[in-house]
Structures
1.
Amino acid sequence: MFRIMNQKSLVTFQRRVISSLSKTADKRYLEFMEKYPDLEQRLNQQQLAAYLGISHEFLSKIRKKLSGK
């Protein structure tokens, strides 16, 4: 049982790393918003930026750019 849980955790981690390396920050932010629509309200900007692997200043620029659409 522990081995299966460990393997699933590793696969999830690998997918996140690959996604982080292959997608733009804009795309990662949009996917986060689709997957966790209510979570953004509960996290501060630094926490969300750290999860996405970007600075909070760059996250502000992404939000500003997307809200202008």
2.
Amino acid sequence: MDNYTITGRIGEGAHGLVLKATDNSTGKEVALKKVLLKRIDDGLPVSIIREVKTLQELDHPYIIKLLDAFPSGFDFVMVFNYMPSGLWELLKDSDRPLTSPMKKCYMKMLLEGVAYMHERNIIHRDLKPANLLIDDNGVLKIADFGLARLMWEEYTRPYSHQVATRWYRAPELLYGSKLYSSSIDMWSIGCIIAEMINNSPLFPGESDIEQLAMVLRQLGTPTVETWPDHHSLPDYNKITFPYQKGQLWEQVIPDATPEVLDLIRNILLYNSSKRLTAVEALKHKYFHTRPYACSILSLPNPPYDHRNLLRPKEIDPLVRPTIMFEELLNIS
């Protein structure tokens, strides 16, 4: 800890305390995630080893980078670049709402980061706006890999179903399934995309039962065609819901374009094997129609300063393959 000077407190969650600090050797701001070691004589907990090893395996512009990791007294500390904002904060900022192009840009960053992660057989299991941080260049970074796991190709190894924050938890998890794949991350992404478009959470249940009821109300009562083998899920017979016809997505997200509704509709499916993968979602027509999503080429000089919550700055006239970035911002 001698290499860092604590300058503030960012927050506290189930997985540890996060502090703001300065790297004494570089002068750069960093974030320190401190996890209490309850039984130090037993060595590092498996959960910490998993998170550190996972982060060491990932190197992508849209995934947070682990800078350092070390024990400190009764704590284990992980060091990351300091992120001044996050998607959760930006979605709550009603004074400076995200434009349609910027929403699409963040969706694309999220999907590219998840596609990279899934290609390396890693599932995040807790994707939500609060875990999607924004750096001072406006770049989205997937963070908090405390629940991440290595995927097994045959999906025969059981995992805990008590993962993912309730609002973003796939229905198979709500029914107690312990055999699942990266498609649970895609369900979370579908919920996040819908929340970005609608400016409010899609399924804000206050309990697991209410959460499942909200999903059933939207998608309708599952059938053998829409969800094969759903009757065999561990908790399926523990509660009975009245028949639901389902709702039209156009009614639930009235301000969405047909393209983004089609994207959401093809991610938020009961049948996890039918959900779009991250790679498939990136090929969806939504990302290839106006307004276009920003490319990596446009990110080093973003038009917004997220330290001031999207206050416009002078726009750098970077040329993208098909569109000027300045034109991108002027498209409503």
3.
Amino acid sequence: MLEWDDLKLVLAVARARSITQAAKQTGLHHSTLFRRMADIESRLGTKLFERQQGDYQPTIAGLAAVETAENLEAEMAVLARKLAGQDLAPSGIVRLTTTDTLLHAVLADDLAAFTQAYPDITLQVVTDNRFYDLNRHDADVAIRPSNAPNDNLVGRLIGPIKSVICGPLHADDPAQGPWITCDETLAHIAAARWRDKNFPGPHVAMRSNSLLNVARLVDAGGGFAVLPAFLAAAFDNIGVMGDPIDGLDNDLWMLMHRDLQATPRIRAFNDFMFPRLKRRQGLFAGGLGRGSEM
């Protein structure tokens, strides 16, 4: 017979397709998870996974177990949201997912002010390029770019984020380079593809898996880059080269699951943060930079 804890491990392996990666996600040592999975299969008397070309692929029995685990996970998330909605006062934990760029350039001061205004609320802030799944209760609130928010989420649009060409103050022609850009882990970002198309010739001096790193390197004089306008404005030694680039807009949203919107701690966070972010629309749109140079 399987317990919920067993099913969570089965689901982790199915999603990661790897014992090692699933162990990292669950906080177990890989040898411990390997033994746990062997014990689960022994109790069931059937294999749940076959290893194919390095990946753990669910068997027919494994697929049935994964489906059950996903259904239970969804039901547990619904229960957690409903229980969270029983809170009577703004207290407890608010789990926020955002990007490192937004935290550094915009959010840090306001988050500190929020915790001072609501000392009974603890903020758990996770910065990641992944979009944490609010439906699975990975986070309570998301403040991040998204041009297609999930229909199950309650969204409040802050405004468009525009991107700009920037470089060190008093820099010359970006067509001459050098450039700093994203590595392959961020190749999906439209700004990276735009740079590769419009400036294919100049030397790329540095690449990074973080836009915050790219901005810091530009600030240090390392070269030119395409950055969100708000991020460029956060550094003293970055100059903006001309107007925002057409076609690279991303909408900035504050998102939460609809089951949580009336929870006192979530409502308190929403009511505190949204007006402050809304007042920064000009910053996100590139209207409050440190000047431009051509």
